User: Which sequence fits this backbone?
């Protein structure tokens, strides 16, 4: 077997492999399009809930009243007040797990762990559309290049019907792939901001629910009522506040004064 025949055989294998991949690519592109439409519907529902129900003052009010209910020995009332925050699926799931922790073991470090878990949960939800940002155009490109070989073959033989059929498939898959990538990118950008805001709201909720209320004694509406008693701040949340404050000071180039127990001892 000479080199020319070997090269021809390799080309035929590559051509046959690419031709076989045409229908799996088309089916996968249709599946990704259906997936993208489902994600678009879920995203529009999330936007509706956020625009219709999200309000920072409502979150503050319900959380402060829930804390007062805990202090008054009325946990069921506190749970009902916390469940009023239904503007995001992330917030709803977090509050469900938080209430379940209160009803069972009441671990002091569990709220911070739940917050970290839901940070990973938001990343997981973002991955569903971020994958489509890359996969959609990739499928569109593959669905464009694979039919070009039969189209060029039909052009060489003078078969215009074969040429038009393959070019129609190629251009259609290109449009579908770009549509999937564009919609997925738009949803990923907005969801990234939405979920970051949700995590910030959950941190604020935990600070109001279990943290100290020193900043509430400034003449605000709930300062006189909430300033009488307060729950002790969990050690993990206080430690996180100290670390974030240290990070801010160091990033601004300021000198940080360490507590006495952290300073090195002089010999």
Assistant:
């Amino acid at each position: 077997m000479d080199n020319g025949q070997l090269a021809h055989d390799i080309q035929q294998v590559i051509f046959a492999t690419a031709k076989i991949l045409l229908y799996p690519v088309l089916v996968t592109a249709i599946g990704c399009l259906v997936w993208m439409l489902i994600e678009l519907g879920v995203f529009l529902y999330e936007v509706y809930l956020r625009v219709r129900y999200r309000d920072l003052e409502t979150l503050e009010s319900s959380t402060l009243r829930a804390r007062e209910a805990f202090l008054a020995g009325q946990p069921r009332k506190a749970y009902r007040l916390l469940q009023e925050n239904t503007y995001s699926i992330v917030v709803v799931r977090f509050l469900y797990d938080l209430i379940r922790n209160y009803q069972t073991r009441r671990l002091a470090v569990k709220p911070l762990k739940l917050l970290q878990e839901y940070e990973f949960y938001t990343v997981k939800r973002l991955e569903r559309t971020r994958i489509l940002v890359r996969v959609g155009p990739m499928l569109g490109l593959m669905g464009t290049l694979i039919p070009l070989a039969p189209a060029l073959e039909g052009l060489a033989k003078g078969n215009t019907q074969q040429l038009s059929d393959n070019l129609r498939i190629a251009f259609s898959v290109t449009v579908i792939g770009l549509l999937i990538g564009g919609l997925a990118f738009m949803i990923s950008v907005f969801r990234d901001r939405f979920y970051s805001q949700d995590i910030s709201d959950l941190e604020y909720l935990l600070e109001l629910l279990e943290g100290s209320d020193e900043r509430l004694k400034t003449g605000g509406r709930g300062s006189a009522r909430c300033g009488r008693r307060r729950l002790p701040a969990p050690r993990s949340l206080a430690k996180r506040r100290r670390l974030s404050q240290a990070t801010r000071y160091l990033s601004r180039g300021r000198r940080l004064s360490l507590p006495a127990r952290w300073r090195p001892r002089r010999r």
User: Anything to note?
Assistant: Confidence is low (pLDDT under 50) at residues 213-236, 242-259.
